[in-house]
Amino acid sequence: MIRGQVRPSQDNSTGLEARISVEIVAANQIFQTLESVVDTGFEGAFTLPEWIARELGLHRTGTRPLTLASGQTIRTDTCVARLLWHGLPVDARAYVMGNKPMIGTTLLADCRLTIDWWDGGEVVIEERMPAA
Amino acid sequence: MAEELNGSETAALGRKIYEGIREEMEAHHWGELVVIDVHSGDYEVGEYQGERSDVELTKRLMKRRPDAFTWAELVGSKQYIAARLSTRQTLEYLASQERDVHD
């Protein structure tokens, strides 16, 4: 189970955002903790700002298209990054973009996401239990 | 170290390499994903089950080509496989483009 907290958004809006801490493996094989925003409108695994990808020493492995909310297609560099997800190492595609790390629905697949949508509210991501 | 490419150059090179192998891919790998190293032309192809397949094929390719810089194509489809960004991410992206123009 992954736990986090709802806090005021840091993107100059008046809204709130659901944050969790994610452990990611840097190029030196040491885990680093990144505070990340859960964004269910994003279909990929996660995004990493350029400066964080550089700081972690992550090697860029290619370019992939992304679709903006307007429908326009853009291309952005990506890395394959290893992170701890429900306590296990998972390799996922990180799109190098944005102002802060964001978790999308590829990582949330087969999970239950519960958010208490108030400042200080709890964010819980649970693995889906196998059917009995 | 291979020359660094921007997104458009990578896509153009990837598509050009894909055109060269398209006939074989469509004959034997319809509906599968091919991940191409745009520097060497080497590639990995396998079943497509979303972004995780892309990651696995990229890792397989990088075992042979540690410096690979990749592009991906879905065999038999003219559409790009493109994850959708949220409204917030879109606004951040557009703001960053505007900053780049003014810098």
Word description of this protein:
- The complex is a heterodimer of chains A (132) and B (103).
- Chain A is mainly beta.
- Chain A has a six-stranded mixed barrel.
- In chain A, a hairpin with a 2-residue loop joins strand 6 and strand 7.
- The longest helix of chain A is centred in the middle third of the chain and has 7 residues.
- Chain A is globular and about 35 Å long.
- Chain B has one domain.
- By secondary structure, chain B is α+β, with helices and mostly antiparallel strands.
- Chain B contains three helices and four strands.
- In chain B, 50% of the residues lie in helices and 16% in strands.
- In chain B, strands 2-1-3 form a three-stranded antiparallel sheet, sandwiched between helices.
- At the A-B interface, strand 5, strand 6 and strand 7 of A face helix 1, helix 2, strand 3, strand 4 and helix 3 of B.
- Strand 5 of chain A pairs parallel with strand 4 of chain B, so a sheet runs across the interface.
- Intertermini distance of chain A: 20 Å
As residue ranges, the low-confidence spans of chain A are none
Q: In terms of structural class, how would the helical and strand content of chain B be classed?
A: alpha+beta
Helix percentage range of chain B = 40-55%
Assigned CATH architecture of chain A: Beta Barrel
Strand content of chain B: 15-25%
Strand order of the largest sheet of chain B: 2-1-3
SSE topology string of chain A? EEEEHEEEEHEE
**Top-tier CATH class of chain A:** Mainly Beta
Characteristics:
heterodimer; A: 132 residues; mainly beta; Cathepsin D, subunit A, domain 1; 10 strands; 54% strand; B: 103 residues; alpha+beta; three-stranded antiparallel beta sheet; globular
Summarize the structure.
The complex is a heterodimer of chains A (132) and B (103). Chain A has 132 residues and is mainly beta. Chain A has helices spanning 50-56, 105-108; strands at 2-8, 16-25, 31-38, 46-48, 60-67, 73-85, 88-96, 102-103, 111-115, 122-127.
